[in-house]
Amino acid sequence: MSKPVRVRFAPSPTGPLHIGGIRTALFNYLFAKKHNGTFILRIEDTDQNRFVEGAENYIEEALKWCGITVDEGVNTNEKFGPYRQSERKDIYRQYAEQLVASGNAYFAFDTSENLDYYRKDHEAKGKTFIYNWHNRHFLSNSLSLTPEEVQTKLDAGEDYVIRFKSPEDETLNLKDIIRGYMTIETNILDDKVLFKSDGLPTYHLANIVDDHLMEITHVIRGEEWLPSLALHYQLYDAFGWEKPEFAHLPLILKPTGKGKLSKRDGDKLGFPVFPLAYKDHKTGDVSLGYREEGYFPEAVVNFLAFLGWNPGTEQEIFSMEELIEAFDLSRVNKAGARFDPDKTKWFNHHYMQEQYNDDLARMFKEIQPELAEIDVNYVELVVALVKERANLVTDFWDLSHFFFETPTDLDEKAVKKAWKDDSPEIMNQVIAVLDSVEDYKVENLQTELKGWITKNEISFGKVMMPLRLALVGALQGPEVFDIMYLIGKEETKRRIENLIKTLS
Asked: Motif 'KMSKS' region: residue span (predicted)?
């Protein structure tokens, strides 16, 4: 590429960062690193009405957790700072007024009441009100007023916005790396507001100015910004600036494949749509986060990479370094990517098996209050036995609680299947066998008990099913002998005796 690659991720601090936002950040990051470029974080906080305290810190923490390192941004290599748009408003005013001076934009003094009147009037006639070439000369703006009238309004301090003057009867030729070439007629476009009455720019002006001043070479963003591409092309032309290349990523769809994935889908189906848990300061509601639900950042990055991109091979497990090497925008799909909660767990299961058991044990202790006083070394032994059946660290308790507490509830179906008339007598004999085992180890337990079963010609199921029921409370769990060893001889005997007492 002729210029050093510079890309930006520019979220708004209006709440938690959706995984769609993280995916956008990831694709920008992968593209930058693939081409030895720069990944920039810019905070687009011009909409002060929607600003949420703490959201910027949330964004930074989420990126850090995912392993997406910022090369340039707030408090990081501020080569083109400041990187918060709220701190750049004087810059935007200058460029907005430049567009007015060049005839590409104009002052509009229309009140919200007047605009509302026109909208309702058009609706009553079965039409849609669009502020553009068709009617702008009849509205209250610097195109319909005399220069003296405009100056009088400005001197009087009347509220105004600056609108872009979209040209008439032109055809725009647009190019998108992912979607190819597109054409659009300017007559159907409205004159977008570029500068608001509160002295701040809209997204359209701010991001164009910032991208130019920060020397952005590629704009990689969500599909929802595709309708704005025509305006952004026109703004670059109006300023006489070289355009960056654009790539609009496909939507992340609901698990059904219909409609954009939302927080409501996650709440309804019980999976996170945010990288980190988030507490709404107004309502107190807490939204699920992948980190807090026991997912590993490597798994989150891996499954997000496959939402709209494929490597062209059968490989599914990628490290960040492998993703950087394989990533290519030409392999990003146009069609929306269906979100599959089960597939995310599949990725996490893989990465869980690669974790050290002592790390998993510490994570398990942190999230499970019942383990506060349990030795982490014991927890580590338990984790080693159950992690193969787990997708998440949060699965561990259901898979292993019987290692830490005596089961109090018995599964009814298991009781019917395992407990027969001769079960009490058989279980009492099992206790006697255990008493005879001097060196209480897994291998010795297995040898003695299986030898006794064979010698007495007892059905294996008649012994092992009620024994498992006594230890676990159900017919599930790791190897019976592993459970017996970890909980110890006395606890094993106590549980068998409790079962006999309960069911006899």
From this structure: 260-264
